[in-house]
């Protein structure tokens, strides 16, 4: 990736250039469900169902309604090719998709146009959005923290993006031996679901490491749950085991 | 549905889902989708004038029709199937004992309800007319092109129809299946089925009778009043010979084969001859196209499985699509189609295999095969839990029951 592609690659950001470069190279693959992002496509239904349920409950919407998110302002940080942004827009939310890689943003824009969806995609970062004073009803922070350079700094910026009364979802992988065995050795080396080097053990994030900076930034934890793969049914599902993949939900009190 | 003019001036329409084919499965699918808030186009040439075939709607299908609020309109045209009698008329050394299954053993009023397709189709078509989100388009599909986020259909009236998802309900020669690039496995049996309806002097007492003969099953299923439908499976030469007989001679031949259990018989309506074969699509969904009914699976008319399996496709696809929309997913996305495939594969595979095995066991002259079939039916006759299991599985496998067939709603 050229330097020009990285919008916010200068000093004082938490973007890890090497991480951004790796994902940009794969950008064209984003929307191929049989391609490199197959695990993310498979992962999507469980996280979509979780977001739909929690947002509906919090904002008093009908969970079963196809347009339950009408009028909500939603930010998808690290939106990639738009795998989450598009469903959120279909549910009626005003979606801003942010990604540090302009290649990803271009891929996402082209795809949203072909899907007849209006999504505000921006090649920018959480820090830049926070500096501009933007705020959202819902902030999605899914599978991003394990790829940033400075987790506490990044989370502090993310927290500022949540409106009073708003929600933030964080999904990531725990730093445990079990996660090392399953998410790195298992998924990358044995099963080859993910390209090798997608995740590095040292960059994985424990729940406590999310909780502390976000609480300090004024957010409150509402709940957490694990996500596990069920090989028999060939799908991901919510569990109480947060040792590997997990999601946490925070709110900013009004 | 919104209307647009394209640059070339040919009319172009947008819809969420295009259902191709207006047989019972296609109409039920379109109706279910429109009722659940999808803009739906039902595309097919105007219905053929008459369809004299009959269908035994099993309990699970009735449950789906009930949840679509159609059953009250359909029920008056049906005859209940309270008892199923299986008689071994193979004349072989080892014959299976006669077995009678009673619906009351399952605490059901009936295993199913037999209806002429013409009446079923008429009621479904009437219900389709009343749906505001459903548009019936009388046209053939001449072209189908799948793009990144939708399918563009070229219709025989010169118009273009754009949809997020196409449902192929267009039968065993499905054009949708071919356009989606889905391959099929096809096989033939050395048999033909003679299908017709009869009036008879003696009442049927809501019994269906299945005579297993060396050339295939001979099955009488009750219709309303003193009438029954017959499916007579024969080797092709004999079937053609029977098909060519005049009404009186053929009626006598049928009465003799049925051991006169229904008294004197008269043939009503037209008779049809079908070569027997099976077909199974390698996948039920691909490239923004999902297949239902005979576009996905065809097997011999044995054991009332065909349309009931088609209705399970309908209820399952509806459930998958409503769930996908609830999560904000693209309803034609590969992940959604994969969920449909995953939900239907075990049911379709097990039905196809079971019907195939039953049919082949009738044709087989091998003693061990006859033994197994005889033993199977003997055990089915004597061991109550096994009987109930077989009866229940014959109606619908427990694993494959979609919500609409369990008395639940989708939204």
Compact overview of the structure:
With 254 residues, chain A is α/β, with parallel strands linked by helices. Chain A has eight helices and eight strands; from the N terminus they run H-H-E-H-E-H-E-H-E-H-E-H-H-E-E-E.
**How many β strands of chain A by DSSP?**
8
Distance between the termini of chain B: 22 Å
Query: Residue ranges of chain B: pLDDT <50 for 5 or more in a row?
Result: none
Q: Please give the largest β-sheet of chain A.
A: 8 strands, mixed
- Determine the mean pLDDT of chain B: 85
Sheet/helix structural class of chain A: alpha/beta
Helical coverage of chain A, percent range: 25-40%
Termini separation of chain A: 42 Å
What is the count of helical runs of chain A? 8
Q: Any idea what the shape of chain A is?
A: globular
How much β-strand is present in the residues of chain B? 25-35%
State mean pLDDT of chain A (0 to 100 scale): 87
Low-confidence stretches of chain A: 1-11
Largest interface: A-B, 25 and 17 residues
Q: What proportion of the residues of chain A form beta strands (DSSP E)?
A: 15-25%
The main β sheet of chain B shows up as:
9 strands, mixed
Molecular structure report:
The complex is a heterodimer of chains A (254) and B (411). With 254 residues, chain A is an alpha/beta fold. Chain A has helices at residues 17-25, 38-58, 85-90, 102-114, 126-131, 151-160, 177-190, 207-216, and strands spanning 73-77, 94-98, 120-122, 136-142, 162-173, 220-230, 235-239, 245-251. Chain A has an eight-stranded mixed β-sheet with strand order 3-2-1-4-5-8-6-7. Chain B is 35% helix and 32% strand. Chain B has helices spanning 24-35, 59-67, 71-74, 117-129, 175-179, 236-244, 247-257, 306-326, 334-363, 367-382, 384-395, and strands at 2-5, 11-20, 40-44, 54-58, 79-81, 83-88, 99-102, 112-116, 134-138, 141-146, 151-155, 160-168, 184-200, 207-213, 216-223, 227-234, 265-281, 285-286, 289-291, 297-298. In chain B, α1 runs parallel beside α8 (306-326), α8 packs antiparallel against α9 (334-363) and α10 (367-382) crosses α11 (384-395). In chain B, a hairpin with a 4-residue loop joins β11 (151-155) and β12 (160-168). In chain B, the strands form three sheets. In chain B, strands 1, 2, 3, 9, 10, 11, 12, 18 and 19 form a nine-stranded mixed β-sheet that branches. Chain B contains eleven helices and 20 strands. The longest helix of chain B has 30 residues, at 334-363. The A-B interface holds A 31, 33-34, 41-42, 44-45, 48-49, 52, 63-64, 66, 69, 86-91, 111, 114-116, 234 and B 37, 147-149, 325-330, 333-335, 338-339, 342, 411.
